[in-house]
Amino acid sequence: MELVQFGCEDWLNVWEKSATLDIAQSTIEALSLEEILSFEPDGGKAFMAKLMKEQFSYGWIEGSPAFKTEVAKLYQRVPEDNILSTNGATGANFLSILGLVGQGDHVIAQYPSYQQLYDWPKTLGAQVDYWQIKEENGWLPAIDELRQMVKPTTKLICLNNAAQPTGAIMTPSFLSEVIEIARSVDAYLLCDEVYLPLDEETDYAPIADLYEKGISTNSISKTYSVPGIRVGWIATQDRNLCYEFRKIRDYTMISTGVFDDAVASLVLKHREKVLARARQIVKGNLAILKDWVEQEPLVSMIFPKAVSVSFLKFEELPPNKTEEFAIQLLKETGVLIIPGNRFDLPGYARIGYCTDEKTLREGLRKLSEFLRAYQK
Ligand SMILES: Cc1ncc(COP(=O)(O)O)c(C=O)c1O
């Protein structure tokens, strides 16, 4: 089994701790336990009192009833029984792909997107074809190309909606065309949905509601702002598939643990408040990012629609210098970005703009300064 390095994760593992101005992360500024507890009418007193007495056994194996109830509210067609908790969305993707794909299977994956969605099936021996995203399409791939790529043997199509690193969104009408193609060859559709668009206008729906062979993976890491609680989930209408996934869970994780399950359930119970906070950060910071891009001639961007990742284009930097530039930027200014070559797109960079406002403003200011100094 040969597993290639995870480009963006490897970059962050090496460099993120040396950053003083981190504008690379895809999360929304993370919540503390104190902030989460403050969403409770009694400030979390009853919740904490109960948790203090709770035995730290394995807890509920697939997720507590409270957790499943909260997650099921995010879907219209997924019963509670068809929701399985996982170790983050990474765990959900890992497990679903392991459950679906084997040696020689044909898989199509939106590319580039979250690397796990194509390199993990490849490692399992699948033949993976890339459904290429295109800048001129607002970073979406072309439906006609997917139509030409599917084969009668296509087992799985992997999507990321909204997508990393660009923030591009597949609307339900776009997805209905993808589903029609998947259905024509009886393929499963796995969609990593950790980035929920946070504006009210964008039309959005989870794949598990749209397609009988759709698998939605998600977590509380990104839109819900709590990546330090390692809880995600798989949701699907397909009961038989859930049984297959259950078998793998017993080999890979057992449960997410009592503490993580309890906090994740609380976060989801208060999702309206969590999302309102996230919406405010995304909206305010996106305006700052837009102002900066518009007055900075050395960069351009197809702006995301209320999604916490964005993808910057360097107008004059030679693409083969992207990583060298990002390392020097970090060393000389403390500003962390993720160079686009880590997503197989040199000449660009991921900007995680949903950090605190001061870091964002200062990070962008120093990035501008350094762009000038570097290009001299
Ligand atoms: C698209 C996507 N899926 C999954 C993850 C990881 O999610 P989790 O923290 O829930 O494992 C990331 C993290 O960057 C991501 O960008």
Automatic annotation (TrEMBL):
Q: Which NCBIfam families match?
A: PRK07324.1
Asked if the keyword Aminoacyl-tRNA synthetase belongs to this entry, the reply reads: no
Identification of the protein by name: Aminotransferase
Pfam assignment, any one: Aminotran_1_2
Mark the transmembrane ranges: none
InterPro entries reported in the protein's UniProt record: Aminotransferase_I/II_large, NHTrfase_class1_PyrdxlP-BS, PyrdxlP-dep_Trfase, PyrdxlP-dep_Trfase_major, PyrdxlP-dep_Trfase_small
- Domain Aminotransferase class I/classII large, by residue range, is 49-367
| Species assigned in the record | Lactococcus taiwanensis
Cofactor(s), by name? pyridoxal 5'-phosphate
Signal peptide start-end: none
Does the record carry Signal as a key word?
no
Q: State the CDD domains in the record.
A: AAT_like
EC annotation?
A: 2.6.1.-
List the keywords (alphabetical). Answer: Aminotransferase, Transferase
Q: To which protein family does this belong?
A: Belongs to the class-I pyridoxal-phosphate-dependent aminotransferase family.
Molecular function GO labels: pyridoxal phosphate binding; transaminase activity
Q: According to the UniProt record, what class of enzyme is this?
A: transferase
